Amino acid sequence: MLARKAAALLATAAAVVVSVVVAPSASAHVPNRCSGWRVGVFDLNNYAGQHACFNSGSGDLRQFALNNRISSAWSHDTVPWCLYDDFSFRVPFSQMAPGGHYPVFAAFATNRASSIQRGACPAGFGVLPEPGVSVS
C-alpha cells in the first residue's frame, strides 16, 4: 500500500515538473534575436521573419530589406523611438514607447516605416499603441 502511494506521488510530481518545463516563461513574447540591442524590428507579426536590430536607428531600412515591411517590434530602451514614412528621418508618423512591445503594429503603422531613430518624434506625434494597452 505504501509503495502504491509513493508511486502515485512520484507520478504526480513528475507531471507537475513536466508542465513547468513545457510552460512558456513570462518573457517568451520577446525573442532572443537582437538580444543585447535596444530595439528589434520584424517583418511579420509576433516578432517573426526578417529582422534588424538597432542601438541608434537607420535612415534607410532598404539596407535591411525592411523598407515598408515592419509589422512588429520591441524596445528595451528607456527612451522612445521615432518611426518615419520617408528615408533619412523625414516625415515622422508615430513613436514607440520606451520599453514597448508590439507583437502586432496598429493598422496605420504596419508596413509603413522607411527609417527609424532613437529619440522622441517632434512634438505632435503620438505614441504607437501597444496591443491590449489603452491610450488616453
From TrEMBL:
SUPFAM superfamilies: gamma-Crystallin-like. This is Peptidase inhibitor family I36. It holds the Pfam family Inhibitor_I36. Residues 1-28 form the signal peptide. InterPro entries: G_crystallin-like (IPR011024). Keywords: Signal. Gene3D superfamilies: Crystallins. The keyword Signal applies.
